[in-house]
Amino acid sequence: MNKINRKKRRYFRAILLLFMCSIVLYTLFSNISKDKYVVSEGDYAPNFSLETLQGERVELKDYRGEGVFLNFWGTWCKPCEREMPYMEEEYKNFKDQGVEILAVNIEESDLIVQNFVDRFNLSFPILMDRDGEVTGKYKIGPIPTTFLIDKNGKVVKIITGSMTQQDVKKYMNLIKP
Amino acid sequence: MNKIKCECGHVNHEGTVLCEACGKPIEGNQHIDGNDKTRLLNMRYDGSARRSQTYKKSIIDKIWNFFSSVKVGVWLIVLTLVASAMGTIFPQEQWIPANAVSRDPAIYYESTYGIFGQIYYQLGFYDLYSSWWYLLLVALIGISLVICSIDRFVPLYKALKNQKAKRHETFLSRQRLYSESDNVSKEEKQQIIKSLKKQRYSVRDENGHILAEKGRFSRWGPYVNHIGLIIVLIAAVLRMTTPMYIDEYMWIREGERTVIPGTNGEYYAKNKDFILETYDKDNQRFEEAIKKEGVVAKNFETELVIYKDQTSATGAEPKLEKLKEGSTRLNHPMKFDGYALYQAGYQSNEFSSMSFKVHETDDPNETAIGSITIDLTSPKSEYKLDNGLRVVIDQYFPDYYLDNGEPRSKSKYPKNPAFVFFIYPPNSDDPEVSFVGIRKNIDATGENEYKLGLQDFEMRDVSGIMVIRDYTLPLFFLGGVIFMIGVIQGMYWHHRRIWINPKNGKLLLAAHTNKNWHGVKTDIEKAIANTNVNMVKDQQELPG
Amino acid sequence: MDTLLNISSTMLLVAFILYLLATFFFGATIRDKRNKSKESKAGTIGITITIIGFLAQTVYFITRWIASGHVPVSNMFEFVTFFGMSIVLGFIILYFIYKMSVLGVFALPIALIVIAYASMFPTEVSPLVPSLQSYWLYIHVTTVSIGEAILSISFVVGLIYLVRTIDQTKSSKRTTWLEIVLFSLLIFIGFSLISVIFNVTGYSAQFEYTANNVTMTTEYQLPAIVSPYEGVLITDGVMQPWFDAPSWMHGADAGRKFNTLIWSVFVGLALYGLLRLVLRKRIGAAIQPKLMKTKPDLLDEISYRAIAIGFPVFTLGGIIFASIWAQEAWGRFWGWDPKEVWALVTFFFYAAFLHLRLSRGWHGEKSAWLAVGGFAIIMFNLIAVNLVLAGLHSYA
Predict the structure, then answer these.
(1) Which of A137, B148, B457, C271 is 20 to 30 Å apart from B258, CA to CA?
(2) Which of B74, B483, B517 shows the shortest C-beta gap to C301?
């Protein structure tokens, strides 16, 4: 009888200790590795719908089957400006291979964006996030930030910071259907 | 398991210090509570066996016993105390003042506090309260709370439940309050019982052995408050690890509508107006203080309209519906659907619109030919005047600066707007170029016929709003309430016990309480008034 | 409006004088050669005067409330004054439980020191800034103050215990520490004394210094021993500073505060030296004989009881109400602001005290030393955190 009791007690203690330790470890771990993005690599990219600079409405899910190079940018941001010509160059090569660029401008006026587009001769669609809705949904911090989305609508990679032309090429190859 | 049989016939568990039935000290176990060194008995848990101190077998038991020790608990408290205090030597990262040399901790601490600041930074003390080791300390306190409570609850419960009125002579005489009396009549004894009952003691009479007890529930206070603390810690874990807690910040401009961060695009807010009020300088009440301190703010408030997007789940084009209109100000957050918006900051250095007049360059009176007003959030590209003159915005820099001679914008916010204007005179396709900004008006060729002059501008405020949704609050609150109930229960009530046992014609009177001995003495004095019973003697051994 | 404020400050002065008077009556109760009835008579007069003083201070409080439109606990002067008032309240409560006159001899002077210290801060009625415009200001600050005051009574009794029981026949570590505690109290008296003296003479010296790239001037009301870091004296005909404050001292007006501290310590030392010269023994040793009538057991219990009563009040006000207010005002109930941290340190300290006492049997002298330590933490939170470690609570 006593032996059984003692055994029971030991199990109880072991389980309780294990339980508490795992909570502690889990808390510590999740505190250290706090997720920066709400959308992380491997997730499905949340759908959204925005107007382009020309006033057409575009929805992300319409691009299922294609790779989407989703770039968040601003005209005032130097690194964004630097990578724009590379994106334009590679866009010409990859457009026919099923890669689309969606460049989301964050809360700027049409005039400024139009000037910028004219200056760099950009041919890919510029989406105007006028209320910051999509920027908020994707929790964008510093720009430029680029989400690489494959043909199934899954986020393959998230890149923060400026890209070289080689980078752009490499990434477009990555999401080519 | 070794059972120990007491001379009264009761069989005690191993590790028992005082017999559970009669209270006689059990030989060989007195060192556990330190009774061997003193005359008075240690009444902790009434001398019953605490399991943790009896089995020392496996590693699990050893860990368990470690956390079960109050000594360890106190050490953990002291370590946490010292660590907490160290975090206040220099400001924590989030409290680095906005006007500091640099808000980068790597620079701030060294440049402001020298070598000590550098050490402070390198030890990671600038973010001490979310460091892994600080969290670990708090977590260890939590584990200690759970185990201590489990370990002590059962023995105390048993000890208090199984109490017998008849106690061993040694048990009584080694209580702090004790007296022996001769020649006590039955009537006197009844009188004492009556008096004790009147003082709200519950009195038990077992064959002439009397136990009067009051305020036993105060003994559960510590367990109750520890449960409260455990709930608080559970709430903290949930807050740190689950999305039950959302904490976001947004800047929102007057007149602007924007999505509320952290709401997954479901809610939008529009800033109708930001209000900043200061105390009137001529306010009689505060005249003197205002003279001394300068302008004193009276109110920060943002009038907001909240919209809800009916389609946000699908990601299609938002359809906004007005949900609520109201305002948020310091100390009075605006709440909706579980979210709370806090007035947290403001900026008043942005322009919202600028008006220019066009006049002939060589007109000494600068008579306006016409004027244009530019909405800086959505400027048009072309403005036509009545006389056929056209003003075209070629370039617009909301936050103008010169970058190696090249004009650029520092941000998207109109803090320092500047324009490159093309002015087309009536019936002409040949533009004149001029550059106009705040206190800047440059004629590129020097031959311009027309000039733009800044006539007027409007500024707009930007409100800093904190967005909080915290579903863990009720749990924290519950924990706090339970903690307070437990503390008050344990601290403001007292467990008092008085034993009156006959022995060899004498009447032995002894009393014990967990605190407020003064109170129990007064109770006894009242009870034995006008009887032959001797007042108890305080046998406490305090030097001096 | 002005008449109300005049009444208010007069009543504070009246209260101050009455507390002083009551101290002497309580003092009479511990003189050795008195008989019992005279002793209790002096005690009764003492407590009566104390209560009248308390009522006078209540009038101060209410009139100031009416005059300013908000409860007068919104700046250093008001808060510290209220803290002094709370100490008197705590003393009155414990006096009626235990009827111990010697308590008054120590508790009232502490309250006096606190009130005197308060009056050295700017006393004008100041408007409430938005962050303080909440009824939680009333609830939180008053509860904390009362809680801390009751805990301070535990220090007072602990101190009596130590003076009463520590062996003064030979010099030891314990006698030295006791003298340090008593000397610290003299520093406060020194601060009040020196401030009053130079206030009356109207001393002023101005310095110009640069902090965070902003040039500021500061006015010293005491002769400058230490100037602000790289500060320049711009008043003529006053004492030249001896040295500069170190560069890391650059809170608001750090140089002036440091100078005041040095002066307070100097005057405290002078007072201490004077007392030692007059008494020709340790101060503790000089007071001890007067306390021989008190029972250490009872002192020990009162000290513990004060903590038992004060701890829940403090926790309620300093942790729970504070969190609720912080949640309403800043959207986070806990922000690791220095004042919050030190409230937590206080909480931990007394929690450790209770565990040591209940489970590890720390009674008597150990317990008394802990009560002294607790008071040191409370004072640190009251003074140093507000004046040295800047934060949300630096309203002074």
Answers:
(1) B457
(2) B517
